[in-house]
Amino acid sequence: MAKPSMTGIWKGEALDFPYTLDLTQLSSHVSGLLTVGGFTKTGNVMGVNYYPNVLLSGSFLRHGAHFQGHFADENTVTGTIKSAHGAHEITFRRQ
User: Fold this and answer.
1) At 64, phi and psi to the nearest 5?
2) Most-buried pick from 6, 61, 66, 93 (CB within 10 A)?
3) Comparing C-alpha atoms, which of 20, 24, 19 is closest to residue 6?
């Protein structure tokens, strides 16, 4: 079985805010954009997919954030977002 890629649109929710990731994966490297519901700006995201583990870092409105998670299945990644606002569990689902 091929290892799942992070390429695509992923959606999740934390702290009552919807999060959308628009990602591209090349080899194990992941990059793309983060959009948080209610805001018109996007933030850059970069990281790695060391299947089953996923590590992403980025910034949004000058605030840094880190995501550490793992594939629950090929279309679901669960983990924790850590930022200045604390650590919050989130599940991203491929759209």
Assistant:
1) -85, 150
2) 6
3) 24
Instruction: Name which of 15-24, 36-45, 50-59 the model is least confident about.
Output: 36-45
C-alpha 34/C-alpha 59 separation (Å) is 8
Name the token pair of 14: 């934390």
In angstroms, the CA 43 to CA 65 distance is: 10
Q: Within 13 Å, how many C-alpha atoms sit on residue 58's CB side?
A: 26
Query: Tokens 């091929």 belong to which residue?
Result: 2
In the prediction, which pLDDT does 63 show? 81
Average pLDDT of every residue of the chain: 93
